[in-house]
Amino acid sequence: MIFKETALKGAYIIEIEPIEDERGFFARSFCAKEFEKHGLNFHIAQCNISYNERKGTLRGMHYQTAPYEEAKLVRCTMGEIYDVIIDIRPYSATYMRWISIELTAKTRKMLYIPEGFAHGFQTLADCTEVFYQMSEFYQANSAKGIRWNYPTFGIKWPIMPPIMNDKDRSYPDFIQEPQ
User: Fold this and answer.
1) Among residues 62, 63, 82, 112, which one is catalytic?
2) Is residue 43 among the annotated active site residues?
3) 3-state secondary structure the chain
4) Is residue 124 part of a domain?
5) pLDDT tens for residues 73-123?
């Protein structure tokens, strides 16, 4: 696997290294030793699938608070998404900065999201499926969200207006913590 750190410290784009022959290819998509080599101590507690029927569906911006903060390894297994993460770690040099990446079934790239980040995505195709590997179990009392269009962040979503559920649409503005 090829690990490329993003502009947000601790967040990585991960590419597979396919071994190809006449049948197709084989590639590793997760290896605890390779993650540890890059300083990513990632324990998989649970895996989730998000299936989205329509292009333009927006989910997010989600995170879990301490002591249940979670790291995520996200991959688009069908279709394509515009994936967004925001660094909400008050001690971080990249606090309140965000990045986006297109993840597609065709490229098979993954995004590693460390603890302390909010995450969301918008589908760029109908019938899109996203596969998550999570470092922590879901804890309803620690599950939080940030308003997807909070002006301070200025996230540029590609499809407007988005298709959203009421819960994601009603998340509050982000309250900045002192550094």
Assistant:
1) 62
2) no
3) CEEEECCCCCCEEEECCCEEECCEEECCCCCHHHHHHCCCCCCCCEEEEEEECCCCEEEEEEEECCCCCCCEEEEEEECEEEEEEEECCCCCCCCCCEEEEEEECCCCCEEEECCCEEEEEEECCCCEEEEEEECCCCCHHHEEECCCCCCCCCCCCCCCCCECCHHHHCCCCCCCCCC
4) yes
5) 999 999 999 999 999 999 999 999 999 999 999 999 999 999 999 999 999
* Alpha-carbon gap, residue 71 to 49, rounded angstroms: 16
Residue 149 maps to a domain: yes
Q: Any catalytic annotation for residue 132?
A: yes
CATH number at residue 85: 2.60.120.10
Q: pTM to 2 decimals? A: 0.94
Q: Are 109 and 103 in contact (CB under 8 A)?
A: yes
Structural domains of the chain, count: 1
> Range of 88's domain?
44-169
Which among 51, 82, 95, 132 is annotated as catalytic?
Answer: 132
- Asked if the structure places residue 9 within a domain, the reply is no
Q: What are the backbone dihedrals phi and psi of residue 127, each rounded to the nearest 5 degrees, phi first?
A: 55, 55
Per-residue pLDDT of 116-135, as tens digits, reads 999 999 999 999 999 999 99
In a domain, 21, yes or no: no
CA distance 71 to 38: 14
